[in-house]
């Protein structure tokens, strides 16, 4: 192997390539993602330390700074790894050799839905000594599972329409992720039209249940201000947990809760 080939391989020219083919591109939180990772050797033999898969999401963080005598805000899009798994041990890929590795990774239950600006993708990477690691990015759509969809449909049935979704950085809630996904609803018809200006919803999804936080009266302090207090003591914020068994009566339950606090 010539010195020039080694050098070019180490900077990513003529090195191994990776391409992941997923069986599907749309999933619900908690679903298994399956597919195949294709590795193709480059112009020289290379030692692959590992193949890894990461599930990555975006969220927004607002930074405050001073510009002269004024305070400014800057919105930044950040990334966070939701889950990461190793799918191979050390192996060597020969010149122009092709290998395949089946993959299976579970989409975490707290994966945000790909609504609004939020993006979620599968990042496949090769860890190669003394070389720039090649990688492959496959975007996926994350849609509501049955529990989440049950709440959204129940809100729609009582006249509320989702109009905005954002993943925002937060430090006010105990959460393994540095952000929450906030769903904003407005009334379009029904019993709360004219009574309720806006409803904001945050969901904490687990395997068999969902904990929902609803903020009904945003005029007081704003959602972030309310969350920083003891949620149980503020009558404009409702926290409740529901399961599969609660879905048939969820519409009535939501109506009663919102009616009581609006």
What brief labels describe this structure?
single chain, 262 residues, mainly beta, six-stranded mixed sheet, five-stranded antiparallel sheet, elongated, disordered N terminus
Description of the structure:
The protein has 262 residues and is mostly beta strands. 14% of the residues lie in helices and 48% in strands. It has four helices and 14 strands. It has helices at 3-10, 146-157, 223-227, 250-261, and strands spanning 17-22, 26-27, 32-40, 46-67, 70-86, 91-93, 98-106, 120-128, 135-142, 160-169, 179-187, 199-205, 209-215, 237-243. Strands 2, 4, 5, 6, 8 and 9 form a six-stranded mixed β-sheet that branches. It has a five-stranded antiparallel β-sheet with strand order 10-11-12-13-14, with helices on one face. Helix 2 crosses helix 4. It is elongated, with a radius of gyration of 23 Å. The N and C termini lie far apart (74 Å). The model is unreliable at 1-14, 218-223 and 228-235 (pLDDT under 50).
Roughly what fraction of the amino acids lie in strands?
over 45%
Write down the oligomeric state: single chain
Largest sheet: 6 strands, mixed
Share of helix among residues? 10-25%
Low-confidence stretches: 1-14, 218-223, 228-235
User: Number of helical runs?
Assistant: 4
Anisotropy-based shape: elongated
Gyration radius, to the nearest Å?
Answer: 23 Å
Mean pLDDT: 85
Distance between the termini: 74 Å
Number of distinct beta strands: 14
Order of helices and strands: HEEEEEEEEEHEEEEHEH
Computed structural class:
mainly beta
